[in-house]
Amino acid sequence: MKFSSFMKFAGFGISTILFRRKKPILGTVIVTDKCNLHCKHCSVNNITAVIHPYEQIKGEMKQLYDMGVRILFFCGGETFMWKDGDKTLRDLVIEAKKMGFLIVNVVTNGTWPIDLPEADLILLSLDGDKVHHNIIRGDTYDTIFENISKATSDNICFYMAANQINKDCIRDVCEKARDTKNVRAVSFNFHTPYPDTKQLKLSKEEKAKCCDTIKEMMKEGCPVFNLKSAFPYIIENKFPTPCYQCVVMENGKLSTCGRCIEVPGLCEECGYFFVAEYTLLFRGNLKIVFEMLKTYLKYI
Known about the structure:
Elements: H1 3-19, E1 26-30, H2 54-67, E2 71-75, E3 83-84, E4 87-88, H3 89-99, E5 103-108, E6 121-125, H4 130-137, H5 141-149, E7 156-162, H6 170-179, E8 183-190, H7 204-219, H8 231-236, E9 246-250, E10 253-256, H9 273-281, H10 286-299
Parallel strand pairs: 1-2, 1-9, 2-5, 5-6, 6-7, 7-8
Antiparallel strand pairs: 3-4, 9-10
Helix pairs in contact: 2-3, 6-7
């Protein structure tokens, strides 16, 4: 991370904590909900299967930038399926950088060629060892690792949502993150139980066991892009929601925190580690502040 970017984020954090501001710093643009997969835990794919046009997305990016957002995520559906004429996902990332976003990340399922060195991080969904990943996402594991081996940059971060199917695969994914070329780290979430996927949610005891394993892997030197100081809050779901510093834009609609905010009762069962980390950060939790500084400077 550039020193100038670090100073801007530090200034935002200090002012947010001191004055209890609700201004956003992190924004997500949903470029499409179209996806080539039908994962068992996903409730937001192929609802409309619309690929939003370049000019619309560019306008949404400008709106977020004008709101003060400086960390931008492109999400789907599957982001690499996005195309408008001769414009591809790379054009969106380059435009975001030109616009002034300090960090630009992309989320993908990894089944498309990974040629996007302009992104700061490519968050690639890996949901366990080969057997359990393929149970969740179909026969994609080998394709993903072939694409990783051919990636044009080392900006990949595994992105795993722990659920009833893959809860015992955390060690395997951590070791893969440590040992795989072009992979920088791994980031975890717990499954957030939308009404149609409640059977996959973890109990508090299961969450605690997962967090214990993550901490063990951290001690063993695996590159984990999460904050262990937040684990007790995540296990108990005792962190403030929603996260006012995060917003999502989908087809012109702006949502605070995430698309799930309108689902009754879902905030209370939120499994997104970053929501806990950011809300605790901007409430001035000192352990979170120092651990986030260390972690972000290391992996971004």
